[in-house]
Amino acid sequence: MDRGHNGKSGIRTGSRSGGRVSSQPTAPRATRRSLCAFVPFVLSFVSFVLGATEARAEIVFFSTGRTLSIKEHRAEDDKLVLSLRSGGEIVCDPLLIDRIVPDEVPYPEPESEKPAVVAVAQAPLPAVKYGDIIEKVSAEQDVPAKLVRAVIQVESAYHERARSPKGAMGLMQLMPATAKQYAVADPYDPASNIEAGVKHLKSLLQHLPVALALAAYNAGEAAVQRFGGIPPYRETQDYVTRILNLASR
Questions:
Q1: Which of 29, 65, 203, 248 is in the most buried spot, having the most CB atoms within 10 Å?
Q2: pTM reported for the whole predicted model
Q3: What is the pLDDT of residues 29-43, one digit of tens each?
Q4: Catalytic residue set
Q5: What is the largest CA-CA distance in the chain?
Q6: Domains and CATH numbers, the chain
Q7: Distance CA 157, CA 3 (A)
């Protein structure tokens, strides 16, 4: 109990000076108790909100001088697996990394999309351009059709006459050497292009994990071998992430 409270009128007695008593009104005890109980609640709520909106992140410093912001990393056998904030993973040799430090800048955690509820069975995949060719060749080569669709979407956006500045041609962006390897007479012919592209992708998948096979399709198998994983090229990293995201839908 507060010794300066007279228990009647809510007046606190003060020091006596000059024969007068100075007084100061105070808040009722019930109000003070409510405020004391409310402050911890507010602090807890603020901590919860801040914790819910900020996501963990790290910065990877490669020995080449490049940096990459990631969600987290983990060790698997003699490799390091880097989880990208946008989704997907990069597997690389630890010797390629100088250090990994916490990223002081908070990043909002993306809201996960809720899957549509299907009453009886999953809805069929939407029809796409050259779907029949993709399904046929994918089945013959034992390569997932979803993966082939994703590669075509990222490589050429289904434009059969697409040509890159480096000379890649057609739907699956065959380089001249690849087209020659698979005896493609017309790399802009959809059927020939898809058949050669799927065969080339299969050859990579036969001895590489999916992510590394995609990286090799984009940057060349020599680059994957040289870096011991997905090369630290922004284009290749984004390429692999986009295809994996599309193929998983």
A1: 203
A2: 0.52
A3: 544 554 444 444 444
A4: 155
A5: 113
A6: 58-102 (no CATH), 131-247 (1.10.530.10)
A7: 80
